[in-house]
Amino acid sequence: MNIRTYKATTKWIEGSKSETEIREFKVKIDEPLELRGTNTAPNPVELLLASLGGCIVLTYRGYAKKYGIEIENIEVNLEGDMIRGGWVDEKDKERKGFREIRYEVRIKTKASAEKVNQLHKLVEEKCPVSDMLVNPTEVKGIVKIG
């Protein structure tokens, strides 16, 4: 089995702002005003939707040749439902994460609907981010003080 380890480091800036370094890239994170943020960047759950959308696009592009599909343009619109504030439910009565994520793929191609639907089915099976959301992924954390 060939395993690749992906890494990211997130540092707190101030208030609700943080910044994540991934390789040579920096991604800012913040909360919207209604969640006591300053609305200067996407929040973590919005970035999760962005990750899923990016993965869907890349998976479509990666497998299109298998079905002889030439993609002229592709766009994925995503939305997810969760309780307002998520982690601030102090009564622990509600699930913290997304209850459902929906997406719509808009694809411009000359390929038949049958071929595009076959590709879509394959994308649903092969998209790694979707797999991480649908199947349990063990998350382990430790804390180091100082």
Architecture overview:
The protein has 146 residues and is an alpha+beta fold. The chain contains three helices and five strands; from the N terminus they run βββαββαα. The strands form two sheets. A three-stranded antiparallel beta sheet has the order 1-2-3, with no helix packed on it. Helix 1 crosses helix 2 (113-126). 8% of the residues are buried. The model has no long low-confidence stretch (mean pLDDT 92).
What's the order of the H and E elements?
A: EEEHEEHH
Cα shape = globular
Helical percentage: 25-40%
Structural class of the helix and strand makeup?
Answer: alpha+beta
Beta-strand content estimate: 25-35%
Number of domains: 2
Q: In the CATH hierarchy, what is the superfamily of the largest domain?
A: K homology (KH) domain
Number of helical elements? 3
How would you summarize what this structure contains?
With 146 residues, the protein is α+β, with helices and mostly antiparallel strands. 28% of the residues lie in helices and 26% in strands. It has three helices and five strands; from the N terminus they run E-E-E-H-E-E-H-H.
List the helices and strands and how they pair.
Elements: E1 9-14, E2 17-22, E3 25-29, H1 44-63, E4 71-81, E5 100-109, H2 113-126, H3 128-134
Antiparallel strand pairs: 1-2, 2-3, 4-5
Helix pairs in contact: 1-2
Task: Fill in the keyword field for this structure.
alpha+beta, GMP Synthetase, Chain A, domain 3, 26% strand, 2 domains, 3 helices, two-stranded antiparallel sheet, single chain, 146 residues
